[in-house]
Amino acid sequence: MEIGIVGLGRMGANMARRLARGGARVMAYDRDPAARDALRGQRNIRRATSLPALAVQTAGERVILLMLPAGEATEEALKELLPLLSAGDTIVDGGNAYYKDSMARALELSQRGLRYVDAGVSGGVHGLANGYCLMLGGTPKSIAIFEPFARILAPGPETGWLHCGPSGAGHFAKMIHNGIEYGMMQALAEGFALLAAREDFDFDLGRLADTWRHGSVVRSWLLDLCAEVLQEDETLAKVAPIVADSGEGRWTALESVELGVPAPVITMALMARFSSQGGSDYARKLLAMMRASFGGHAVPKAK
User: Fold this and answer.
1) How many CB atoms lie within 10 A of CB 59?
2) One of 2, 174, 248, 255 is an active-site residue; which one?
3) Catalytic residue among 61, 80, 181, 234
4) Spatial CB neighbours of 66, under 8 Å, sequence gap ≥ 6
5) What pLDDT, in 10s, does the model give residues 192-220?
6) In the annotation, is 75 catalytic?
7) Catalytic annotation on 174?
8) pLDDT on residue 295
9) Whole-angstrom Cα distance, residue 110 to residue 88?
10) Residue 299: C-alpha distances to residues 41, 173, 277, 280, 286 (Å)
């Protein structure tokens, strides 16, 4: 029950803590000394000062969990780590990688005698207390090796984790999960915006959101979070109206096109995020000028 973890950000550090509290021995590494120091003195956790040190101090057929941003950070870590590994070791990629990249990576690593698990992970900063939902892709043998750790990380030994299918299936499932999340968040945000617009009803939005949490068909963890936010600051006056988007939402929309399966809610939720980032500013300016051209309507000047 020994596992290495590379990447001690908001998710990785808490996963290390949950594994350690569940009885696993954890060898943890992050290139940021402050991230490593945050785990100082924690039972069942040792800290490595480098990837070579992590590889040397992890015994037997290693299991190493990467909790790094998909793309360059993961690629750089793998490039340094691979020469340090031996046949039979297992790499578990817990980042939000594109599933086609994960399929290619699984094939590449298998040719080196290494095992690979693509792990979609959901749970955020609350995962330490509540457990993480794990969507796993890989061979049955690879999953069996990681299973003892999955049982600790998940909300329960038998619940909240699943071998979804072959390599790529775990990250594909997480991609669709995040697309659904986009749609749910957008619907909640639009609904509460409509409620806030009826100032004559003087809704207590925080209390209304909390009321919906009990018995309503729209109750969910996202609604729980809405209730917490609105009870603290109903006006949101200090929050900039800009919403970032991650790769999974874009990939889900593209997959909808490739498969010919309509996903209008998810796609429109993604477009709303683009709009919040200024992606529609040029189009809006041109719309204003067209309206002025055919109707003589005034055009507001940019500040």
Assistant:
1) 9
2) 174
3) 181
4) 6, 7, 74, 77, 78, 91, 92, 93, 94, 95
5) 999 999 999 999 999 999 999 999 999 99
6) no
7) yes
8) 84
9) 9
10) 63, 46, 22, 17, 10
